[in-house]
Amino acid sequence: MTVTHAAGVREDCYSCVRNASLDALPPRERILLGPGWRVVHAIRAALPGWLVVVARRHVTSPAELTAAEASELGLVTWRLSRALIDVTGCAKTYVAAFSEAEGFTHLHVHVIPRSADLPAADRGPAVFSYLRRPPAEWVSPDAMDSLAQALTASLTSISQR
Q: Residue ranges of the HIT domain (predicted)?
């Protein structure tokens, strides 16, 4: 049974639970906070700078977004792509949304840095292999926080350009 609180927080949804405690989150989980979206560094990822744009309310599909949320999503992914290029030096970014994993059906959009030297076998959809690497290869919390702070600074600069 799913319990939904008055604020729309679903207890069975990782993203809803995290969205409900914004002030307690580390820098890696609040790179950017907007009216409709929150940007976090991907957990259990072996690729530094793998970002996830998480809807602030519980929706499971882009079709459920308001026009304002959809517009904000476009702007956020553009700003993140620019910030990732500034901070990581990546050649380009990938943007994808599936929201199919159990406990993670809450709409979230991946913004993934693709470095110039990423092996050809890991490009395109194969980049998702970086989410299936062993824990020893995951980006450390300290490295995620450091990247988060650099990305937040870059995002501030981009919004002032």
A: 48-125
- Residue 45 in contact with residue 13, Cβ under 8 Å? no
Note the pLDDT tens digit of each residue in 16-67.
888 898 889 999 999 999 999 999 999 999 999 999 999 999 999 999 999 9
Q: Which residue has the tokens 């929150």?
A: 38
**Of 105, 103, 85, 86, which Cα lies nearest the Cα of 94?**
85
Token pair, residue 28, equals 């890696």
Report the C-alpha gap between 48 and 87 in whole angstroms.
11
CA distance 108 to 76: 12
Structure pTM? 0.89
Q: Find all residues with CB under 8 Å of 25, minimum gap 6, and list them.
A: 18
